[in-house]
Design goal:
By secondary structure, the chain is of the alpha+beta class. Helix content is about 15%, strand content about 30%.
């Protein structure tokens, strides 16, 4: 008997990543169904790859965040529309309104600090070295997601190359 695990012909890691991204869609869908009202103190930090296929953000935001961006859905957002492949939302950046279209495949992290819940995803687009960028501040109260790793689900099957 050998200690080496055989290479899977079933892409389990991709299937799990897709299922976890569906969690984000389901949560956002519940918020959409209530007219965009977040219950209690819930709020979301959503990080996504700005250059991923299907991402549509204003040019000035893409220039400021050439690799990855984090948005906050808390107090000031509107027109949340949730679909099967992604969502769109209106946000304000420096008092300038913007519409963002974000496919679930572009999301790399989803955090709800109110209940210490988070998901991290493998990038579904070609991994590029992240370029330095400013922190996203879309006109929300100060606050940062927990970075202690508690209740963050990370899936990495260590695929053989």
């Amino acid at each position: 008997m050998t200690d080496e695990t055989p290479e899977s012909l079933i892409p389990y890691d991709e299937i799990v990543q897709e299922a976890l991204r569906a969690v984000v869609g389901r949560v956002l869908g519940q918020i959409e169904s209530t007219g965009g009202h977040l219950p209690g103190s819930h709020h979301f930090y959503i990080t996504f790859k700005t250059h991923a296929p299907g991402v549509s953000i204003p040019a000035h935001l893409r220039q400021r965040f050439p690799d990855e961006m984090t948005i906050v859905l808390q107090n000031k957002f509107w027109d949340l529309s949730v679909g099967t492949d992604g969502f769109s939302v209106g946000l304000s950046f420096n008092q300038m309104p913007a519409k963002l279209d974000i496919p679930y495949a572009a999301i790399t992290a989803f955090v709800d600090p109110a209940v210490d819940f988070g998901l991290q995803f493998q990038a579904a687009v070609a991994d590029l070295a992240p370029e330095p960028h400013d922190d996203a501040e879309n006109d929300s109260p100060e606050g940062t997601p927990p970075d202690d790793g508690s209740n963050v689900v990370t899936v990495d099957f260590g695929r053989k190359k």
